[in-house]
Write a structure and sequence with these properties.
This protein is an alpha/beta fold and about 500 residues long. About 30% of the residues lie in helices and about 25% in strands.
């Protein structure tokens, strides 16, 4: 019997699903992160996880994005061969219309991050289309749909290798994960695709991230086959690297590791690895011709009783409006600060334009002297918000501009997420500056510290424009001090040594 799917049922289901995953973590992620919080012994990592869990609950209650990077949409569709679509449009067009409606919803507008031209003009499509669509024809009379919103910070850390058949997969993973840094916002999960061809391995790695996190259940019952044995081995060994939440050093780097395999050529062993971040966002629904899908919201009781708040006894309060180079130079690695006052923002496109203007001797639209810059591309505000969710973006993308900004603009400190590379650390040390880290995956929580926001430069860049934020008690950690000491180097090293002496914990 043939099932007819109306075009608007598919469109509306995708639009609703995109809204749903923007503010609801999957319950399996919440449960596993709550367990990781309970067993975490690193104070810095525990604090970061507390912020992520608090942010997650706030997003669920406020129906606002978990992360300011609301992602590029992936749609995996299995279409029964007894299904027909009542439409004159292509599947890509239908899915894109769903994405468009989902991202432009006035009740919860999502950040448009997709650029039409990846190489030359890189112009924003302004509605986050097109999505990435994968279709498979299967027996049956239903349409099975999985959607995910994949943030750039984690997607950028995707890895692929053509290993020799005799090469060790475990060795490759343990060598590759530390090289990924913390820009993918751990703790999350790793999806690994093995076999097939290059593109098949990458597709399997991405698809595996749609599966429920079940590592604690697997640990409790034990492995049933070699693949599950490999998952357990990799889970224990990756966590033993000590990278920890946000790369600060700790017991939990991954909550789960998923593996998909496919037959491959005798001469080949293609291997792909893609991380999912602390803003893991995906949903699954089935269309049977009876109307649009309905996704069941998780109960608030699923979230643990964790409510992060600033610690005024342990954190140092900083007035950005009177900040001096001398005060910046006094900050210590790992020290927690609460920032109040005015800061500027800017990320990739703004830094490139600043570089071009300085090279031409042109006047910048804003004075950076003795100011702090926050690497962020915020979500547009709704109702009484000063700004929408506004968590940090990956700082290493700004590394090549750091010397220029510190030497030529008078900038004295920077805020972002994850580690800085050698060139940036050298510039920070040279200019006695500092780099502060905010927690990736806590965007809605961070935005509550922002009291006002206005565009002060490069308005045409949209979310990449230069804003001036006025903040009150915005939480950050000194990640690189004026002497060039990076907690993203010292923290994981310390915790890797500690973990080597701790018996492996089994749930």
């Amino acid at each position: 019997m043939t099932t007819t799917i109306k075009e608007d049922d598919l469109i509306q289901s995708i639009a609703d699903g995109i809204q749903f995953i923007s503010y609801y973590h999957p319950t399996d992620y919440i449960r596993h992160l709550a367990r990781a919080y309970e067993r975490e012994e690193s104070p810095a990592a525990k604090d970061a996880i507390a912020q992520i869990l608090t942010n997650s609950r706030m997003s669920a209650e406020g129906r606002r994005p978990i992360c300011q990077d609301t992602g590029i949409v992936n749609v995996f569709m299995k279409i029964g061969m007894d299904v027909r679509f009542d439409t004159q449009r292509t599947l890509q067009e239908l899915c894109d219309e769903g994405v468009r409606r989902g991202y432009l919803n006035p009740e919860n507008p999502l950040r448009a991050s997709v650029l039409a031209d990846p190489l030359f003009e890189r112009k924003n499509t302004k509605d986050n289309t097109p999505c990435i669509l994968n279709v498979e024809l299967v027996p049956g009379d239903k349409v099975d749909v999985q959607i995910a919103s994949k943030g750039g910070g984690s997607e950028n850390k995707s890895k692929f290798a053509m290993l020799n058949p005799s090469d060790s997969l475990v060795d490759w993973v343990l060598k590759t994960v530390p090289a990924m840094g913390a820009g993918w916002c751990p703790p999350g999960m790793l999806g690994i695709g093995i076999g097939g061809t290059a593109e098949k391995a990458m597709l399997m790695a991405k698809q595996s991230l749609m599966e429920d996190i079940d590592m604690y259940e697997l640990q409790a019952r034990g492995p049933r086959d070699k693949t599950e044995e490999l998952r357990l081995e990799l889970y224990e060994k990756v966590n033993a690297l000590g990278i920890g939440a946000q790369g600060l050093g700790g017991l939990t780097t991954v909550l789960d590791i998923k593996i998909k395999m496919f037959p491959t050529h005798a001469a080949s062993k293609p291997v792909a690895m893609i991380p999912n971040c602390a803003a893991t966002r995906h949903a699954h629904f089935v269309l049977d011709g009876s109307g649009p899908a309905h996704l069941q919201a998780p109960a608030l009781s699923e979230w643990p009783d964790v409510h992060w708040a600033p610690d005024y006894n342990k954190s140092r309060k900083i007035d950005l409006d009177t900040l001096t180079k001398e005060e910046v130079a006094s900050w210590k690695p790992g020290q927690t600060l609460l920032l109040s006052g005015k800061m500027l923002t800017g990320r990739d496109a703004a830094h490139k334009r600043i570089q071009d203007m300085l090279a031409k001797g042109e006047k910048l639209p804003v004075d950076f002297a003795n100011r702090v810059i926050y690497y962020v591309g915020p979500v547009d505000p709704v109702r009484d918000e000063a700004v929408g969710p506004a968590g940090p973006t990956t700082s290493t993308r700004m590394d090549k501009f750091t010397e220029m900004m510190l030497a030529q603009t008078g900038l004295i400190a920077m805020i972002g997420k994850a580690e800085r590379g050698p060139a940036a650390i050298e510039a920070i040390k040279k200019h006695k500056s500092a780099y502060l880290m905010a927690v990736g995956g806590a965007a809605y929580l961070v935005s509550k510290a922002i009291r006002s926001a206005k565009v002060v430069g490069f308005a045409d860049l949209g979310m990449e424009a230069i804003y001036e934020f006025e903040v009150q008690d915005m939480p950050v950690t000194v990640a690189v001090d004026a002497n060039g000491v990076s907690v993203h180097n010292t923290g994981p090293r310390e915790w890797q040594a500690k973990i080597g002496k701790i018996p492996v914990a089994v749930a």
